[in-house]
Structure formats: structure tokens, C-alpha cells
Amino acid sequence: MSFSIRKSLSFSSKMKPEQERTTNCGQVGPHLLTRRSVLARAACGFGSVALSAMLAKELRATEGNIDRPLQLPHLVPKVSRIIFLYMDGGVSQVDSFDPKPRLDRDNGKPFAMKKEPTQFNNAGNTLASPWKFRKYGESGTEVSDLFPMMAEHVDDFAVIRSMTSDFSEHTNANFFLHTGSGLQGRPSMGAWVGYGLGSENQDLPGFVVLNGGLTPPGGLDNFNSGFLPAAYQASVFQRNRQLVANIKSPERSDRARKRKLLKQMDAIAIENMGRLDPLESAIANYELAARMQVAVPELADLSGETEATREAYGLNSQFEPTKIYGRQCLLARRLCERGVRFIELTCPSVNGDRWDQHSNLKKGHANNARAVDQPIAALLGDLKQRGLMDETLVVWSGEFGRTPFAQGSNGRDHNPFGFSMWMAGGGIKGGTVFGETDEFGYKAIRDRVEIHDLHATMLHLLGIEHTRLTYRWSGRDMRLTDVHGRVMEEILK
Description:
Layout: E1 9-10, E2 20-22, E3 28-30, E4 32-33, H1 35-41, H2 46-58, E5 81-86, H3 101-105, E6 123-126, E7 133-136, E8 141-144, E9 157-163, H4 170-179, H5 189-197, E10 207-210, E11 235-237, H6 255-273, H7 277-300, H8 307-313, H9 320-337, E12 342-345, H10 361-385, E13 392-397, E14 401-407, E15 411-415, E16 419-425, E17 432-434, E18 436-437, E19 444-446, H11 451-461, E20 471-473, E21 476-478
Parallel strand pairs: 5-12, 5-13, 9-17, 10-11, 10-12
Antiparallel strand pairs: 1-4, 2-3, 6-14, 7-8, 9-16, 13-16, 14-15, 18-19, 20-21
């Protein structure tokens, strides 16, 4: 009888005695031969040794396993990795990257446009920005005094002033930003990237979240793998110097023997049951955890960084949130150097609210900007100095923006109808301003951009055609951009 290594073979109950096996219950049942077991039993197992090594290095995809799809990348990639600087709570576009002189003229007057229903009440009058805008760089792009250090890099930015979201509430808007769906349970964009491209470093996760202290509304499901294999979910690194709990391997003489036994038991389970995603993912995660016991402590050790580097990132700042975020940005650069595909940074607490200033706009936004401005500027400069910028995409965005009219007297409400973000790095046309909001900065009126367009562009720069990165689930081919999304060619080189 010939064997096929393309599919697992199961023999019928009419087998010959030598083709039958005895179960643990003393019964006779069919014997399942997988591809691995066929090769393991052929030529004294040498075939399985060679095949295992090939599979581990090449990440070839086969039906039902955790590996990436075949024939990727679809396009010539412009970048190898993404750093996503997530601004939790929603930065006000009219106080950061979208100057509106009309707000100065109408400050304190009743708002001249129809106000859309929002999550909260107490909508007030037109509110001018407390910050002045200045032109920076050769491009002359206007940035407010909130971000004086980031503004020095504006010639590397493509500022998008016409972003929109479908949701005005934090949790759903966060799910939408991270997964392309406002519903809980879909795969995060970092998980899709890992599924599509695999990992460049077998000792570190392909998708890392550097937690500055604030978990976004919606929780860890923003970083989950959803219906994709569990091996692609994010590994959340904490802000303490160990990064991962219990990462240090205890000094025990029996650990090597236990690990060997566990590996043997895994192999037996796979041979008997075939390739099952939950089992394969669990094995992959345990094996990665073991390798991380060496890689993560080395990553977290910043003793080799120069004092000038530490000073640039704000690690010596008197403002503790700047120190926290500076360390996250420095770790992001180190993760880039080690080939991690997708790195997300969350914000630190500033002893007040995140960027969600429904009141006390000036103090709240100023403190949040103080925490991130210097570290982000240092990260951008460091990436350029080390030659990493051309192969890295940096994305800066919150889940939505804020209203140009006041909430109460000195706050701003949520605004999903038009807000600002920026992208920088490989493949991005620096010094670009794309899209436009109305004269109040309330709604996008030209070159409206959706979250799906952002995701499509991010994937495009990684060499992935977003309509072809799919996973069969619940009877249909699912994708990050669903049935939407267009690549923003206008901001690309």
C-alpha cells in the first residue's frame, strides 16, 4: 500500500492484524499515520529529523498547522517591521496637527455647525486651542507647541488629517483600530502580520506589546489572535525591568530532564492525534517561552547603552512618565534590531486621565505630551542614525480625535468624524500632509481615510496585498480589512 505525505492516512476497520493497534482500554481501533509518523518510521527516523529542521526554519504552511500562508510576501516589501505608537484616549487634532484659525476667531461663541450625537452631554461653545502652531522643517508642516521635539522630525512624517472611525466610544473604537472590527474577538493587526510573514527571530515573539502602564479600554483582546492560531497573539512585556514574569530560569538540575520528557510526550500526542491547532500552538508557545529565558533578559539589559542615549530618550527625566515611556521606546528600538515584526507601545499614566480630556484639556494634554514627546523624537532619531528607519514603519495614532467645541468649559468630547495621525519610515513620502477637515476641524471633507485604509497601507508596506491575506473561519475567508480598504498611494514614495 502506498503512503501519501500530503495528508494523514487512517485505515479502515478491515485492516490486517499488523495494521491494527490496541488502545488503552484494551480495544482494537484504527491506527492513524501522520506525515511525521510515516517519515519517522522510514529509514530509522532520519527523514523526520530532516523534515523537522526544514519546517522550523522555513515556516512552510500546511493545512491545520500554525505556520504562515504560502506565497508571501505578495509584493516587494518596503519595510520589515512596524512600531505602533498608540495614543490611548484620543489626541485632539485641533491641538496637535490640524491648526484651525476659525477656532480662534469664534472662541467662546456658539458652535456654528450642527453637532452630531456623542457619547456624553454638556456640549459647550467653540473652544480655541491653548497652544500655538508653528511651521517646521523644509516642508513647513504646522505642529502645535504640544510636540516641539517630535516636530523636529516632521519632514519624515506623512500627516493624515482626514482619519475617521466608525465608533465614538473607547472600547469599540479600540477594537476597530486594532482589529478592523468594532466587535470583540477578532485578530489584532499584529497577529495578522505574524500570521502573514512569520518571525525573523525564533527566540522572541513576533508580536510584542510594551505596556507603559495603561491597558486600553477593551483590555487584552485588543492584542489577541482571535480565530487565528493562538501562537500569533501578542506577548505583553511589562514596564518592570524583568519585562516578563518568572522569566529567569531557576537553578534546578532536573529541568533539562523534564523538558526532554515534555518534548517526547508532545511528539507522541501529535503522532497519535495529528496536527491540532490548540496543541500545536501550546507546544510552540512553551518552546518559545523556553528560548525567551535567554533572549528577554538580554533585551531588557540596558547597561550597554551610552549615557547620551539614555539622556536622549528621557531615562534621566524628573517626570516619571517620561522615564517610563522613554524606556519603552528604547526597548522598541532594541526589538527592531532583533527582528520583531510588530511592536506596540501603550501610554504611561500621568497621574490623571489618558488623552481623554473631557475637562482640564490644557493640563491633561500637556502632561500626556510631556510623557511621549521626547522619547518618540529620540526613537525616530535613533532609528535613522542606526540605519533602521528605512526598514521600519512608525505609526502614531489614537482611536479617534476630539471635538472643536468644548465639553463643559475646558474639555473636549470624542470625535470620530475627522482626526489626525502620522506615519514615518520606509516607503513613506516625508513632509506630506494628506486630507483635510472643515474650517473647525470637526469632520473630514477631503480625502477621507478609514481605519481599513490604514490597515491596507500598513500591510502593503510589509509586502502584503490586504485582499489576499485571509483565514478561513466560520464559513468565509476572513481578513483584517474585511471587504473594505484601499492603499493610500498618495503618501507613499
